[in-house]
Design a protein that fits this description.
Blueprint lengths: L5 E5 L17 H6 L5 E5 L1 H4 L9 E6 L2 E6 L7 H16 L5 E4 L11 E4 L5 E5 L2 H9 L5 E3 L6 H18 L6
Parallel strand pairs: 1-2, 1-5, 3-6, 5-8
Antiparallel strand pairs: 3-4, 6-7
Helix pairs in contact: 3-4
This protein binds iron/sulfur cluster.
Length: 177
Protein backbone atom coordinates (compact mmCIF):
# COMPACT_ATOMS: atom_id res chain seq x y z
CA UNK A 1 0.00 0.00 0.00
CA UNK A 2 1.09 3.56 -0.54
CA UNK A 3 1.10 6.49 1.86
CA UNK A 4 -1.06 8.20 -0.77
CA UNK A 5 -3.83 6.01 0.55
CA UNK A 6 -5.83 8.08 3.00
CA UNK A 7 -7.85 6.40 5.72
CA UNK A 8 -10.08 8.09 8.29
CA UNK A 9 -9.68 6.94 11.88
CA UNK A 10 -11.12 7.60 15.32
CA UNK A 11 -8.47 9.89 16.78
CA UNK A 12 -8.24 8.07 20.13
CA UNK A 13 -6.90 4.97 18.31
CA UNK A 14 -3.76 6.92 17.37
CA UNK A 15 -3.14 7.91 21.00
CA UNK A 16 -4.77 11.33 20.96
CA UNK A 17 -6.12 12.06 24.44
CA UNK A 18 -9.67 12.79 23.36
CA UNK A 19 -11.74 10.26 25.28
CA UNK A 20 -14.39 11.41 27.75
CA UNK A 21 -11.94 10.79 30.63
CA UNK A 22 -9.01 12.51 28.93
CA UNK A 23 -7.40 9.22 27.96
CA UNK A 24 -6.86 7.40 24.68
CA UNK A 25 -7.12 3.89 23.27
CA UNK A 26 -3.93 3.81 21.21
CA UNK A 27 -3.79 0.71 19.01
CA UNK A 28 -0.14 -0.25 18.33
CA UNK A 29 -0.91 -2.07 15.06
CA UNK A 30 -2.82 0.88 13.64
CA UNK A 31 -0.49 3.57 14.95
CA UNK A 32 2.87 1.88 14.33
CA UNK A 33 2.37 -0.71 11.59
CA UNK A 34 -0.49 0.30 9.31
CA UNK A 35 0.46 3.94 9.95
CA UNK A 36 3.68 3.30 7.97
CA UNK A 37 1.62 2.38 4.94
CA UNK A 38 -1.27 4.83 4.89
CA UNK A 39 -1.90 8.45 5.75
CA UNK A 40 -4.33 8.64 8.63
CA UNK A 41 -7.03 11.30 8.76
CA UNK A 42 -7.90 11.41 12.49
CA UNK A 43 -11.30 12.64 13.64
CA UNK A 44 -12.85 12.79 17.12
CA UNK A 45 -16.55 13.55 16.68
CA UNK A 46 -17.23 14.37 20.33
CA UNK A 47 -14.32 16.77 20.77
CA UNK A 48 -14.76 18.39 17.36
CA UNK A 49 -18.49 18.83 18.03
CA UNK A 50 -17.54 20.83 21.12
CA UNK A 51 -18.29 18.38 23.93
CA UNK A 52 -14.81 18.97 25.40
CA UNK A 53 -12.36 16.77 27.30
CA UNK A 54 -12.93 15.56 29.92
CA UNK A 55 -16.69 15.36 29.36
CA UNK A 56 -19.76 13.56 30.55
CA UNK A 57 -19.94 9.98 29.21
CA UNK A 58 -22.92 9.32 26.95
CA UNK A 59 -25.01 6.32 25.94
CA UNK A 60 -27.42 5.62 23.09
CA UNK A 61 -31.09 5.55 24.04
CA UNK A 62 -33.91 4.45 21.73
CA UNK A 63 -36.81 6.88 21.88
CA UNK A 64 -39.58 5.89 19.50
CA UNK A 65 -37.93 5.32 16.14
CA UNK A 66 -35.01 7.60 16.91
CA UNK A 67 -31.70 6.93 18.61
CA UNK A 68 -30.61 9.67 21.00
CA UNK A 69 -27.17 10.34 22.52
CA UNK A 70 -27.81 11.05 26.17
CA UNK A 71 -25.51 12.07 29.06
CA UNK A 72 -25.28 9.38 31.74
CA UNK A 73 -25.16 11.83 34.66
CA UNK A 74 -27.35 14.71 33.50
CA UNK A 75 -29.66 13.10 30.95
CA UNK A 76 -28.72 15.91 28.58
CA UNK A 77 -29.48 15.12 24.93
CA UNK A 78 -26.41 15.74 22.76
CA UNK A 79 -27.86 14.25 19.57
CA UNK A 80 -28.59 17.48 17.68
CA UNK A 81 -25.15 18.94 18.50
CA UNK A 82 -23.31 15.87 17.23
CA UNK A 83 -25.59 15.34 14.21
CA UNK A 84 -25.26 18.95 13.06
CA UNK A 85 -21.48 18.86 13.38
CA UNK A 86 -21.38 15.46 11.64
CA UNK A 87 -23.27 16.73 8.59
CA UNK A 88 -20.74 19.55 8.10
CA UNK A 89 -17.70 17.38 8.84
CA UNK A 90 -18.83 14.75 6.34
CA UNK A 91 -18.98 17.47 3.67
CA UNK A 92 -15.28 18.09 4.42
CA UNK A 93 -14.39 14.41 4.61
CA UNK A 94 -15.90 13.87 1.16
CA UNK A 95 -13.17 16.21 -0.11
CA UNK A 96 -10.45 14.29 1.79
CA UNK A 97 -10.36 11.53 -0.81
CA UNK A 98 -10.61 8.76 1.78
CA UNK A 99 -10.04 5.11 0.85
CA UNK A 100 -11.30 3.60 4.09
CA UNK A 101 -12.17 4.26 7.71
CA UNK A 102 -11.23 2.62 11.02
CA UNK A 103 -13.67 3.34 13.82
CA UNK A 104 -13.48 2.76 17.58
CA UNK A 105 -15.72 -0.09 18.67
CA UNK A 106 -18.34 0.42 21.37
CA UNK A 107 -18.38 4.21 21.17
CA UNK A 108 -21.74 6.03 21.05
CA UNK A 109 -20.22 8.23 18.34
CA UNK A 110 -17.83 5.93 16.47
CA UNK A 111 -19.03 2.36 17.19
CA UNK A 112 -20.05 0.33 14.14
CA UNK A 113 -22.33 -2.39 15.48
CA UNK A 114 -21.72 -3.06 19.18
CA UNK A 115 -22.67 0.09 21.05
CA UNK A 116 -24.67 -0.15 24.29
CA UNK A 117 -28.27 0.75 23.45
CA UNK A 118 -31.03 1.32 26.01
CA UNK A 119 -34.54 0.34 24.92
CA UNK A 120 -37.89 1.74 26.07
CA UNK A 121 -38.72 -1.47 27.97
CA UNK A 122 -35.60 -1.08 30.11
CA UNK A 123 -33.58 -3.69 28.23
CA UNK A 124 -30.02 -2.95 27.16
CA UNK A 125 -28.35 -4.54 24.14
CA UNK A 126 -24.94 -4.12 22.54
CA UNK A 127 -26.37 -3.61 19.09
CA UNK A 128 -26.23 0.14 18.55
CA UNK A 129 -24.34 2.11 15.93
CA UNK A 130 -22.71 5.39 16.91
CA UNK A 131 -24.18 8.64 15.65
CA UNK A 132 -21.13 9.59 13.57
CA UNK A 133 -20.57 6.05 12.28
CA UNK A 134 -24.22 5.82 11.19
CA UNK A 135 -24.04 9.06 9.21
CA UNK A 136 -20.62 8.20 7.72
CA UNK A 137 -21.78 4.80 6.47
CA UNK A 138 -24.94 6.31 4.98
CA UNK A 139 -23.04 9.12 3.27
CA UNK A 140 -20.25 6.87 1.90
CA UNK A 141 -21.86 3.42 1.60
CA UNK A 142 -19.12 1.84 -0.50
CA UNK A 143 -16.19 3.06 1.64
CA UNK A 144 -14.40 0.13 3.37
CA UNK A 145 -15.11 0.50 7.12
CA UNK A 146 -13.90 -1.62 10.03
CA UNK A 147 -13.45 -1.25 13.75
CA UNK A 148 -10.24 -1.88 15.64
CA UNK A 149 -11.45 -4.97 17.53
CA UNK A 150 -12.25 -6.84 14.32
CA UNK A 151 -8.90 -5.78 12.90
CA UNK A 152 -7.17 -7.83 15.60
CA UNK A 153 -8.10 -10.86 13.49
CA UNK A 154 -5.33 -11.30 10.88
CA UNK A 155 -7.80 -12.54 8.24
CA UNK A 156 -10.12 -9.55 8.72
CA UNK A 157 -7.09 -7.27 8.71
CA UNK A 158 -5.85 -8.63 5.37
CA UNK A 159 -9.32 -8.40 3.87
CA UNK A 160 -9.69 -4.80 5.00
CA UNK A 161 -6.30 -3.84 3.56
CA UNK A 162 -7.24 -5.46 0.26
CA UNK A 163 -10.59 -3.65 0.19
CA UNK A 164 -8.90 -0.31 0.92
CA UNK A 165 -6.35 -0.93 -1.80
CA UNK A 166 -9.03 -1.93 -4.30
CA UNK A 167 -11.07 1.14 -3.42
CA UNK A 168 -8.01 3.35 -3.96
CA UNK A 169 -7.16 1.63 -7.26
CA UNK A 170 -10.71 2.14 -8.45
CA UNK A 171 -10.28 5.88 -8.11
CA UNK A 172 -6.88 6.13 -9.76
CA UNK A 173 -7.10 6.58 -13.56
CA UNK A 174 -5.12 3.81 -15.25
CA UNK A 175 -2.30 4.88 -17.58
CA UNK A 176 -2.82 4.36 -21.29
CA UNK A 177 -6.62 4.51 -21.06
S1 LIG B 1 -14.38 6.82 20.12
FE1 LIG B 1 -14.71 8.52 18.71
S2 LIG B 1 -15.75 10.09 19.92
FE2 LIG B 1 -14.86 8.63 21.37
S3 LIG B 1 -12.88 9.50 21.87
FE3 LIG B 1 -12.54 8.08 20.18
S4 LIG B 1 -12.67 9.38 18.35
FE4 LIG B 1 -13.56 10.54 20.04
Amino acid sequence: MSRLIRVGISACLLGQEVRYDGGHTRDPFLADVLGQRVTWVPVCPEVEAGLGTPREPVDLVKKGRRIRMVGLATGMDYTATVEQWTAKRLDELEQEDLDGYVLKSGSPSCGVDDVRLHHADGATTKTGRGVFAHALMRRMPSLPVEHERRLQDPAVREQFIERVHAYHQGKVPRQGR
